[in-house]
Amino acid sequence: MLNTLTLSQVLKKLKNKEISHKELFADLGAATAAQNKKLNVFLTMNENAEIEAETALGKTLMGVPLAVKDNFCTQGIRTTASSTVLDTFIPPYDSTVSRKLKEAGAVIQGKTNMDAWAHGSSTETSQYGRTLNPRNPEYLPGGSSGGSAAAVAADMSIAAIGSETAGSIRQPSAWCGTVGLKPTYGRVSRYGVVAMASSTDSPGPITKTVEDATIVLNHIAGHDEYDATSSQTPIDNYTAALDQSIAGLKVGVIYMDIPGLAEVKSLFESQLKVFEELGAHVEYANAMDPNHAVGAYTVVQRAEVSSNLGRFTGVRYGEDRSYFGDEAKRRIMLGTYILSKGYSDQYYVMAQKVRTLFLQDFVQLFQKYDVLISLTSPGFAKKVGASEASAMFGELEDMLVEPSSITGLPGMNVPCYRDPKTNLYLGMNIMAPMWHESKMISVADAFEKHTNWNPWRNAEQK
Amino acid sequence: MKNQIPVSHIAQLANIPITKDEELRLESAFEETLTVVEKLQSIDVQDVEPTFQVTGLENVMREDIVDEKRMFSQEQALANARAQHDGFFVVPQVISQD
Amino acid sequence: MTAYELVCGMEVHAELKTKTKMFCGCKNDPFHATKPNIYTCPVCLGMPGGLPVANKTAIEWTIKLGLALNCKINVFSHFDRKNYFYPDLAKGYQISQYDQPFCYNGKLETEYGTVRIHRIHLEEDTAKLQHKTINGEKVSLIDFNRSSVPLIEIVTEPDLKSPEHAKAYGKALRQILRFLDIADCDMEQGGMRLEANISIRPIGTTELPSYKVEVKNINSFRFLEKAVSYEMKRQEIQLNKGVTPIQETRGWDDAKSETYSQRVKEDAEDYRYFPDPDLPPLRFTDEHINGWCAELPELPAALKARWSTDYAIDSKYAQVLSEEKETASWADQIFAAAAKQNVKPNAIANAIVNKKISAVVSDEVERVIVAFVALNQHERVDEAELTQIVSSVVSENADAVAQYKAGKVQVLGFLMGQVQKKIGKKVDVQIVKSALKNALK
């Protein structure tokens, strides 16, 4: 079953001619056909994927198909951001990420479901129906990159691309039991990605293993002349950060005293000894209360969303604004209110000051620690329908990852526990200072290889 | 939340069409969000400068050279338009002039 | 009856003639595009995922204009989003500058007085809207060729004292923009747009009036003068009735020679300005600014002063010849060449301006000088013809001849004039003089 292979394995086997494109696409196609109707992972398939793969054999990514979240503009392939506003929108251009992947020889398998406009942490706000968690379909996959995480978790895809504004890569990765890597803000170009919160949006890979994430990151990271916020800081070779010793590394564990963690706290803590066994020094640390990040992030995000969604009027493309779903309308209106006369200083500027406080807090934490670790999500995946409980569902679920999102730090999720009764996963969030993805990759890789939680390293776990 | 959001005024500003029913539903959703947002006021930010950009980048500019490869043909530009006429996008006429 | 005085400020928008648009590399040439919507891209068309990157040349030109207008430069500056909805605004917001414009607190001198410049900032233009009826339906047609073209906005303090002052300011500003070669200012095409904020107050008072009327979409200096003049009268009538003019936006209807109401502004629009998160801020150093200062060309005021000092050019000729940059540069070369050849520059200026010689900017400098010299060249005269004319003048003016012989030498001038009249051509006076003297011996 070639669809259960990792990206690294597929690339090797294609190169050695152990497997062919035809076989690979056949197995992926079968997995998709069997599960997509129920799980609702893909919104649009690229009918030409297999043909395109034939011409890409000589290139680095060898024609491997990748699932791409539906907020990335893909030339000639419908892009909806899971909203009916864009039901018929076919972009005449490529996002930098999809262009770079295509240039490296990857092909686009299809576009995955998401929370509409990336507004959420459940994929329930999609106007094309929710996606279900492949580990247990009574549960949600998380969001907003729920479709991409589910595609990987269900072995419907070899690897996927997602985006994170505050948790949207890491949280669905945690809920679906995959690896999810959010790079430093500015590390990967945002050009061509439907903007949500411009000051925190970060495209990144959702994959089966840490190694796979580094392969994808190597191809999508880097400066882009079309994105004025993308950095000229030289990129590392991220695969070189694999298989590194973490002896002597200082690990700070944060956010352990958040109320409501209950049983997941001890489950998580039991995993920390792995780092000590590998020679790292593990210590609990005090970080600024992530609850403060919720307010700050909510304000900044909704304000920027309200402005970014102003272009959708149905004139040049798409449908008019009456097609916006409830969640989008709420967010646009709240953002408009926050920025309106008399309130901007009170809310928007205030939130940016709180952002500064978080930046300062991380600076002092990283003076003491090489990486910081926390739970990605305060619990396991929630049941279908859970997101309707609160207007603030998304932001509260993402509380633990919002501080690193609003400050632009890189963070990645690795599976760190599986509940045998529900088959649901817990995720560990590993954070590093800006531009130090390699540090967090080394730690994540070490954890993955010295535990049995990764389903693809230990086939019998699935 | 003491300050009620003037929902219909905001909807107009945001160019979002809403019904009377939606107006009522939105009011309670806003209340919940504002409660969370209001908590921001309790944080001490004296002498703290706002950070609008975490990158620290400055002076990012482009040279004044035409980028042929990114320009759309007229067909591409209009390909997704709801209505077009002689190469123009079409909208129902707006009354107010500016 | 109270006498009122004008309190007027102006906002001028000028499209910069950069090669590309403000935030993308699309061609900046909306006026000469052969078809609509052929210079667009994901950015200026406001597509999902489009991101702006600022045009360096547009920024430099804006600062140069500020330096030319004696402004202070904000060394730390950024762009803001101005959010509102209109079909010609692709993104639903315009990228502009709100609280940190590039330039502020400058001034421009005119013959009617100084005009203080409040601020100069850079923003992007909107698409072009055309209203039409198609198949019985009233529609607007949108062309995005102009969307995101760099637009510079210059705002004055309410220093304009008269319609003439406003016109003089507009013309002086346009001249500087053209001298800097940063904008063509073709007003008919909309390359330069004028807006006036007009109110009046009793003469002698100093407080700013409680209202102001904005008159927009004025696309000629003539209309500007007429509109300001009309508004002054209209507002005076209202005030004399005890009515405060409504704070509103008005347009100028030239056919009816009046302003008309377009939009009432109860309070300022809520544009929800915030710093554009897609564009990092700008920080200029003293080196930058000094460098740009050094690159400024000689501006009209300085040029005219130099012409006066170096070449003694009359101000009325200087005004005409310095109007356009190309003409000014050409005239400057002519003056320099003339001075070297001992030809009076001011005389040439006179000849050019009064069209005594036919000279255009494309004419080579030397040709112009040759033409001028030829103009004042004396014509030849046949010696026999001259002798004959001199004798007839002598015989016809016996009294004058007698006076001359009696010692009144100045009569010679009169006799010379008579000879010149009879000859009918411009002859060298020395030849005439010696011929006469000979005859009168």
Description:
The complex is a heterotrimer of chains A (462), B (98) and C (441). Chain A is an alpha/beta fold and 462 residues long. Chain A has a single domain, classed as Amidase signature (AS) domain (Amidase signature (AS) enzymes, Alpha-Beta Complex). Helices cover 35% and strands 13% of the residues of chain A. Chain A is built from 15 helices and eleven strands. Chain A has an eleven-stranded mixed sheet with strand order 1-3-2-4-6-5-10-11-9-7-8, with helices on both faces. In chain A, strand 2, helix 4 and strand 3 form a beta-alpha-beta unit. The model of chain A has no long low-confidence stretch (mean pLDDT 95). By secondary structure, chain B is of the alpha+beta class. Chain B has a domain of 44 residues. Helix content of chain B is 32%, strand content 9%. Chain B has a two-stranded antiparallel sheet with strand order 2-3. The longest helix of chain B is centred in the N-terminal third of the chain and has 19 residues. The radius of gyration of chain B is 23 Å and the shape is flat. The model of chain B has no long low-confidence stretch (mean pLDDT 88). Chain C is of the alpha+beta class. Chain C is built from 13 helices and 17 strands. Chain C has three domains: 280 residues, no CATH class; 78 residues, no CATH class; 57 residues, Orthogonal Bundle (Arc Repressor Mutant, subunit A). In chain C, strand 14 and strand 15 form a beta hairpin. In chain C, helix 1 packs across helix 4 and helix 12 packs across helix 13. In chain C, 42% of the residues are buried. Chain C has a nine-stranded mixed sheet with strand order 3-7-8-11-1-12-13-14-15. Classes of the chains: A alpha/beta (462), B alpha+beta (98), C alpha+beta (441). Chains in contact: A-B, A-C, B-C. The interface between A and B is large, with 64 and 47 residues.
How many domains would you count in the coordinates of chain C?
A: 3
Order of strands, main sheet of chain B, comes to 2-3
Structural class determined from secondary elements of chain C: alpha+beta
Shape of chain B: flat
Average residue-wise pLDDT of chain B: 88
Q: Which consecutive residue ranges of chain C, at least 5 long each, have pLDDT under 50?
A: none
Give the helices and strands of chain C as they follow along the chain: EEHEEEEEEEEEHEEHEEEEHHHHHHHHHH
Taking the sheet with the most strands of chain B, its summary is: 2 strands, antiparallel
Number of helices of chain B: 3
- CA radius of gyration of chain B: 23 Å
Helix fraction of chain C, binned, reads: 25-40%
Which overall shape of chain C is indicated by the principal axes computed on the Cα atoms? Answer: elongated
Query: How many β-strands of chain C, per DSSP?
Result: 17
| Contiguous uncertain segments of 5+ residues of chain B | none
| Percent strand of chain C | 15-25%
Strand tally of chain B, please? 3
Question: Strand content of the residues of chain B, in percent?
Answer: 5-15%
* Distance from first to last alpha carbon of chain C: 78 Å
Helix and strand run of chain B? HHEHEE
How many helices of chain C does DSSP assign?
A: 13
Query: Strand sequence of the main sheet of chain C, in spatial order?
Result: 3-7-8-11-1-12-13-14-15
